[in-house]
Amino acid sequence: MKQLQIKHVLQCMLLTASLALVSCGTSTSSDTASDSSSMESSVAPAEPVTHAEAVISGTKADTTVDGTASFDADSGKVKLTLNLTIPKMANKTVAVHIHEHPDCGDNGMATHGHWNPTGAQHGEWGSASFHLGDIGNVKLDAEGKGTLEMSTDLWTLGSDTASSVLNHAIIVHNGVDDYTTQPTGNAGGRIGCGLIK
């Protein structure tokens, strides 16, 4: 009789312990799910970037270059407003491109080649084939000042897309882009550089 009572007590204890474990496991699981869903709902979506800018300065000691390239997002397009002052290049035309890397070191050479996420051939903007970084040529006046404006839906200001101009560099060349020579347009040396941020 005593053995039956001990056996019955042990079975009860075992059953109670099992229920406690199952109950704890369930409660932990639901707590985790509830924590996880509250964390997800508290993360706000990232704000879209509507403006970026590159301050352009000279890469050569003998050539003063001052300029800005402003990028503004509006209605699904990005508008570029480029202003350059290069007194030494007065009455001449200079090529301007967006280059791959945001690093103006080594006299602008650290930017590497043109920004070309689509793998296209170099050419004039809007032609059958061109790099997304093929901005074009800018005519400078008698004081070495020049401007260029363009608007496109091929660029974005989102840092997570292949079409984003952010984290690249603007390069000003001392020659004219012929829109033909691959992959650079034979635009000459790099005399100005600015990081797009």
Highlighted features:
eight-stranded antiparallel beta sheet; Immunoglobulin-like; 197 residues; 1 helix; 2 domains
Any overview of this molecule?
With 197 residues, the chain is of the alpha+beta class. The chain has two domains: 1-43; 51-195, Immunoglobulin-like, CATH 2.60.40. Helices cover 21% and strands 28% of the residues. The chain has one helix and eight strands. It has one helix spanning 2-42; strands at residues 51-58, 66-74, 77-85, 93-99, 136-139, 145-152, 169-173, 190-195. The chain has an eight-stranded antiparallel β-sheet, with no helix packed on it. Strand 2 and strand 3 form a beta hairpin. The protein is globular. The termini are far apart. Mean pLDDT is 82; it is low at 1-10 and 12-47. One of its GO terms (molecular function) is copper ion binding. It comes from Parafilimonas terrae.
Query: How large a portion of the residues is in β-strands, by DSSP E?
Result: 25-35%
> Low-confidence segments, ≥5 residues, pLDDT <50?
1-10, 12-47
CATH class category of the largest domain: Mainly Beta
Query: Which structural class do you get from the secondary structure elements?
Result: alpha+beta
User: What gyration radius follows from the Cα positions, in whole Å?
Assistant: 31 Å
Q: How much helicity do the residues have?
A: 10-25%
The DSSP helix count reads 1
Average the pLDDT over all residues and give the rounded result. Answer: 82
Order of helices and strands: HEEEEEEEE
CATH topology group of the largest domain: Immunoglobulin-like
Which CATH architecture of the largest domain is right? Sandwich
Largest sheet: 8 strands, antiparallel
Signal peptide: 1-22
Protein name: Superoxide dismutase [Cu-Zn]
EC number: 1.15.1.1
Domain Superoxide dismutase copper/zinc binding: 65-196
